[in-house]
Amino acid sequence: MKFLYNLFTWPVQCRRWSALMLLLCAGEYAGAQASFAPYEALFTEPKSYVAAYTDAPIAIDGKLDEAAWKVAAWTDLFVDIEGAKKPKPLHATRVKMTYNDSFLFVAAYLEEPHVWATLKKRDTIIYHDNDFEVFVSPSNNGHQYYEVEVNAFNTILDLMMPKPYRNGASAMIGYDVSDLQSAVQVHGTLNNSADKDEGWTVEMAIPFRSIVAGNTWRTPAEGAIWRINFSRVHWQTDMVNGRYVRKKDSKGKLLPEYNWVWSPQGVIDMHYPERWGYLQFTRKATTVFTMPYNEQRRPHLWLVYYRQKAFYQKHGKYANSLQDLNIATPDVVVNGQPNKLSIEATSRQFIASITDQHSTITLNNDGLVQQTAKPL
How far apart are CA 126 and CA 1, in angstroms? Predict the structure, then answer.
């Protein structure tokens, strides 16, 4: 978990957001709408995973020895959060998932030659240790998503975000994923600097009823698609008096952590839910993920969003025309289907829309995505 305003890291978040703004502003007037230049890293296709239903029991003990885990596929190995432009991670990380009527099950293996942890109190800032993190958005609307972090002690930080930090929200640390189950198995010796470990395994059962808005919940329908991503925070360490201590530079400042993820974000910030991977639920053995048409339409809205934020950074107001954002034509073709872009804006707010003959998808200045059944 990154960038908790008012919780130790606000200046870091500001520096990273400013760096992104410089990138966006540099490309404010560069290229046509369809090119996504010069910030292509924000438009790489997210990874996908098809989770198969299981009715077999799963004991949350970190061992991953149940039949359901033996048939579930591992994801690709994690990469740097910024993607291919950065070196591959020092240690391997991978995840697998399955589900039943009540829970999304997540398992992860983290290769690590020196497994250590210090934090034992729930809802402390777990990424001050090496940790594993789950980010999940059942709604896929850019708002109201959930995060769970765990360290090698199996200490949990869980929270809900009403919307991303970039849109002025704060983390709801007091929120608990009710009835969350988790377990860790260390393959080696925890906090023993004298030996070499293999790594650690995380196993979680996340209740569907605890990560929904409102008073009702249900098991995901056949073919339902959520957004999800996983992060691993890894710190460089020194051994001091037999203890692991996060490494510092010559001025006594902590060296920055590594951020390794399943689906690359393209920016050092996990709180871009539009960049997360896709999770599809199925009870069919033959299901293969195919990018939905409406998901292919959304990047055109996010291009408008990023350019609007850059325009605002430079001019102190939002643009009220596509031309001001150097989008030469409102006409775009998505998977062979004609669509039309439009924006409505005041100096402080905007709504971007993409419309075909059947529906309209909108994205506002707060990063909220909504879809109507009919064209506007």
Answer: 8
Mean pLDDT of the chain: 91
First vs last Cα of the chain: how many Å apart?
Answer: 37
Hey, is 25 helix, strand or coil? helix
How far, CA to CA in Å, does 235 sit from each of 84, 128, 195, 362? Answer: 20, 8, 18, 40
How far is residue 345's CA from residue 149's CA, in Å, rounded to a whole number?
Answer: 38
DSSP string, 88-153: PPSS-EEEEEEE-SSEEEEEEEEE-SS------STTS-GGGSSEEEEEEESS-SSSSEEEEEE-TT
> What separation in angstroms does the CA of 110 have from each of 98, 123, 197, 230, 288?
19, 22, 11, 12, 27
The model's pLDDT over 151-186, given as tens digits with 9 standing for 90+, comes to 999 999 999 999 999 999 999 999 999 999 999 999
The amino acid occupying position 203 is: E
Distance from the Cα of residue 48 to its chain's centroid: 13
Q: Enter the tokens of residue 231.
A: 């992060």
**Which amino acid does the sequence have at 342?**
S
Measured between alpha carbons, how far is 275 from 60 in angstroms, rounded to an integer?
29
- Phi and psi torsions of 194, nearest 5°: -85, -15
Question: Which structure tokens are listed for 129?
Answer: 């240790």
pTM summary value: 0.91
d(CA 138, CA 145) in angstroms, rounded, equals: 7
With beta carbons less than 8 A apart as the criterion, state whether 184 and 154 touch: yes
277-292 pLDDT per residue, tens: 999 999 999 999 999 9
| The token pair that represents 279 in the structure block | 């999770």
Instruction: Return d(Cα 45, Cα 43) in angstroms, integer.
Output: 6
Dist. CA 364–CA 369, nearest whole Å: 7
